[in-house]
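Pilot study result, target chain (741 residues):
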Amino acid sequence: MNRIAAVLMVLLLVIPGAYAGQISWSVNFLEDTSSNVQSVREMSLVLMALSGAQKAVGNTSADKIDSLAMRLLSLQNSDGGWGYLPNETSNVVDTSYALIALLKAEPYVSPVHRSALIEGVSGAVSYLLTSSSGNGWGYVPDSAPAFYPTVMAVWALGEYGYYYTESPIKNAVGFLLSAPSTLPAPQALALKVIALHAVNYPVPDDIVSNVEELLRSDSITTLDRAMLTYALELVRPLDFTTSFFVSKLLELANVSGDYAYWLSSPTYPLTTPEVVKTSAFALMAVAYLEQYTPQLPAEQNPYVAPCSALESLQNDDGGWPLVKPGPSNEKATYYALLALKYCVPTNKSVEKALSWAREALTVDGARMVSTHRFSPAYFYALETLLHSNALSAEEKEKAINDIISSQLPYGIGLWGNNLGPQPYQTALAVRALVDLGVPANDSLIQRAVKWVLDTSNGGWGIYVSTPYFSYMLRPDVMTTVSIIEALQGIVPEDKLRPHADWLVSQRVDGGWAYWKPYYDPMSGRVIQEKPTVELTVRVTDVLAEFGYNFSRDTLNFVIGAKQSGEINGKSVETAFAVMYLSRYKFVPKVTLDDVRLALGSELFTLVTSGLSKNETEKVVGSLIELYGNSFVVANTTEIGEGYYIVVAPYGSYNVSAYNPYLSFRVENGSVVVANYTAPVDSSIVLVPGYTAKGKVLFVFYSPSSRWMAVELFTTGFIRYIHGDAMVLTYENDRFIQKVVG
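Predicted structure:
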């Protein structure tokens, strides 16, 4: 005796099972049943159900679907149709079932069998089209139209792509709307709705109302309920009503081991066709709503610092180039080593870098002294060694003397280049001397600082000196931020604020470039530079000292630059990306899907603020029925570290503390979630969030929408929550569902 036969013998001994796992268990049942079915109709129903459930079970039945589809194709007659049993005369009903099944199975059929399936589908369509009487279909060609063959042919051709305005569907739809049926009334109604939906015919409201009325009845069979539930889902969006009817259907499932099945006749003997048909339609119904609960891919951490990319840019001599490939550069090496402190650098790479910096300091220092030109290259080589505490007292003393001796010959406290004294070089020299231990109140330092401050009251740039006059060229962001960095802690904040304000005015496209776009009359064109990670991060940090906060925008800018590849191969850009992103702890975006997937697997604490004892008991009872005993009721309104469901009035909790990504507010009688607005009085809002060690689901309600918060659970709708947030509004006796995100 095979396994499925044994199960059929003990069906009467099992009891309805818990909801969890019913889809996969039902798939197990129908997969094993498929080897025992003999009729084309049963085989087709199994194929339809398995194909419809694949999204819910992760395509685990693809091989079974492929083999079952090939078995069904092997039974096709030469005229393109199928009979009820193999080798029987073709008829419209069974041909329609087979065509629907093959069309639903097509995505899961092996590529090597695809041509055979296409050929079989083409033959079936041809058979149905030639069998039409013009006003509908009879059971066989040239017979009078009847409801059952017509409704099945319309459904099948609709699945193939026929529209209700096309011939021969147009007349058949008219026939269906008024034709009597010998099928049980609930099943005939369900098939009518399914067929009309398949050909995109607007199903009349009175027909939908009849479906709902029957589903509220306790006198219909399980097969009736399965077919009607599936039909209703096709024409009515997911809401409390549809989820309630699905819950009713789930309650009727029977579980035996890892099998789940439905049956209408609870008396022995049981027949396989009855169980297969009922279970197939039931699986189609309960799996259909899985389209509302997508499985989300794991979210990537956008704050991952590009450490490995930075390490890979190091040259063989130990330094880092500005751009790879390229010679090692003092500034690039300085910032690369600063950034590597946030990574896990090897001692060898750091030692090589310091060795290169020491050699660079020697070469740059000798050139600086001989030319009386203080260079940024020397400054960065020196700062690299100072930050690593790699200079002895004697070496520091020599560096002080070298910097002092590199002043311009014609001015004390002035450092510069061929254009004369420069605010940039002078500020860097001041910073270097202070870092080497020269007191900030030293007369040389103070004289140099005064000169730098006197050259501008709003940004710095290249300074031009002549025997007759001096002037500053267009201020630039690089020079200005470098000077502010160098002088911070040496001069009062108010002396630097005008320059900080100037930096604010230079912001463009979410960041800072060397220059803000400007028109150059000499060239007759607009000079426009792209914002860089280096300048954007440096300016953001400088401005933070003056009370400006651009951190969130800068974070987005840096993430965007990293993800776009804009920083690839650029040592300084990559280094600043590492340093800035390393400040942020990754808080992944939380969704309702995350909460839904945790239900049943984690212990949730239920907080019901404002609900009555009876309402709370209903909520808890529904959750336990849906997910098992993994819920406890809190005697406080506080949210702790674990998993929580919080049902509370609007305004009871600060959502941003648990979900910083979602915009949520209540104002002027409306609730605004992201960019969606709904009336407070007739809406509830579902918002996910994080706790320290778990997740939280907020269900916010108003006094007049409190009943909706309860029915969210009692109808089973909670199983289908998804998206960044959901807003459910009840208007004109209908639910309006808005998924945010």
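One observation from the pilot: The domain at 592-740 is CATH 3.30.379 (Chitobiase; domain 2). A full batch analysis is planned for the follow-on phase.
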